[in-house]
Design goal:
There is one protein chain. The chain is of the alpha+beta class. The chain has 2 domains: 211 residues, Jelly Rolls; 150 residues, Mog1/PsbP, alpha/beta/alpha sandwich (Protein Transport Mog1p, Chain A), CATH 3.40.1000.10. Helix content is 22%, strand content 37%. An 8-stranded antiparallel β-sheet has the order 1-5-6-7-11-10-9-8, sandwiched between helices. Strands 15-16-17-21-20-19-18 form a 7-stranded antiparallel β-sheet, with helices on both faces. Strands 2-3-4-12 form a 4-stranded antiparallel β-sheet. The radius of gyration is 25 Å and the shape is globular. This is Lipoprotein.
Length: 410
């Protein structure tokens, strides 16, 4: 009888200990900041690897639940992606640059597509897009409306986008967070957006703002920069998929073919542009020319694999080089959609001040990646967007450097 009593006592103690640990785990999650949850639970990560299944940090967050209320079925077809990993596992790190944006969300009269393996969680009126857990990255996207829908007219929201996004960025830059990229306006006739970047010691916070017909929405991409550095690509692709309810669905084409052996790195053909000149590879052809816009391309079997877009922006009163940088993206060169990405740097090239950033260009026929530079020349600001294949960014960087370093001024 004593043996039976001892066994029952041990069972009771083990049961209580298990519950205590479970409650302690739950309480610990509620105390941790949202952006640090994924890195705080090594045991659960090991379990994920063993079971090879998708896990999400917000499933363990007090007050948050999976939410499908923003999902809509637009029947848009698949977004072109470079995702080949098992759909029941987390994305591979290299896939983050070109994800499968096939889930459609609708919020405040605005459509946007998110990756297939991400999930939306909500807590009251707060929404988060969570990426599956991985040892290789740690990413989530917070969604916040800056106002109540309808507080401002559509025109007011467009006109005050920079003002509101700048104020919101300043409000976020506290508690050890610093603004590393002030607000950049992604000028567009139909898609009004802006972005800024804030960082602390461990995380980057890329804040993307879009003016919808009813509100301004802040999509904050939170990324552990010790593990990955792909927020700029995610932001750019998110914007390429998005559109206000009153506009047509954007069509994007991407190719992930390797054109490495087709890219000519030698910039030998001189191009005169009046007060300045530069050199491009001999096999690039002039496909468009006007007073304010000149385009050079290299095509392979009818596919554009390299492109140099040179546009002139007439100086207006009090216009700065930063203003000009903003004006030479978005849909200012239709039918393309052009986004600068990440931090914009200021540098000197041949004693001339340049603004420079990574960039992507999206069209219905192709999408390319490279960089963008803007400089002042006479009565104009000049923008050069130099891009190449998505699969050959290293060679594109080398070619772009050769072209930019060949710039000479009268």
């Amino acid at each position: 009888m004593k043996k039976i009593f001892i066994i029952l006592s041990l069972v009771f103690l083990v049961s209580c200990t298990g519950k205590t640990k479970e409650n302690s785990y739950s309480n610990n999650l509620s105390k941790n900041p949202v952006s640090s949850i994924k890195s705080s639970d090594d045991k659960k990560n090991k379990k994920n690897k063993k079971n090879n299944k998708l896990e999400y940090a917000y499933d363990y967050m007090d007050g948050y639940k999976r939410d499908k209320s923003l999902y809509v079925d637009r029947m848009l077809g698949d977004y072109p992606s470079d995702v080949n990993s098992n759909k029941d596992m987390a994305y591979e790190k290299e896939e983050l640059k070109n994800l499968d944006y096939n889930k459609n969300l609708f919020i405040s009269m605005y459509n946007i597509r998110i990756p297939n393996r991400s999930l939306v969680f909500s807590n009251d009126n707060s929404y988060v897009i969570d990426f599956p857990e991985s040892d290789d990255y740690e990413i989530s996207i917070k969604i916040d409306k800056l106002f109540k829908d309808g507080d401002y007219s559509e025109n007011e929201l467009k006109e005050k986008l920079l003002e509101f996004s700048s104020k919101n960025t300043m409000d976020k830059a506290k508690d050890g967070k610093n603004i590393t990229q002030p607000v950049v306006n992604l000028y567009s006739d139909y898609k009004n957006a802006a972005y800024s970047i804030i960082e602390d010691n461990k995380f980057s916070y890329t804040n993307m703002y879009v003016a919808t017909p009813a509100n301004i929405i802040n999509f904050e991409i939170i990324e552990n920069k010790e593990k990955s550095d792909d927020s700029s690509f995610i932001m750019s692709d998110l914007l390429s998929t998005s559109y206000p309810e009153s506009e047509d669905v954007p069509i994007v084409s991407k190719s992930f073919k390797d054109y490495g052996d087709k890219i000519n790195l030698y910039a030998t053909k001189k191009i005169n542009m009046g007060n300045f000149s530069f050199k491009i590879p001999a096999d690039m052809e002039n496909t468009q020319k006007s007073d304010l816009l000149t385009v050079f391309e290299k095509q392979v079997s009818g596919k554009t694999i390299n492109q140099v877009i040179v546009s002139k922006i007439k100086k207006e009163e009090n216009m700065t080089i930063k203003d000009a940088f903003n004006k030479s993206q978005g849909t200012s060169i239709p039918p393309s959609y052009i986004t600068s990405m990440g931090k914009i740097t200021e540098e000197k090239i041949n004693d001339k001040t340049f603004l420079r950033s990574k960039a992507r260009i999206y069209t219905e026929q192709f999408s390319l990646e490279g960089e963008k530079v803007v400089f002042e020349e006479g009565d104009y600001f000049v923008s050069m967007i130099l891009t190449g294949p998505l699969k050959n960014t290293a060679k594109t960087i080398l070619l772009n450097s050769n072209i930019i370093n060949s710039l000479t001024f009268k």
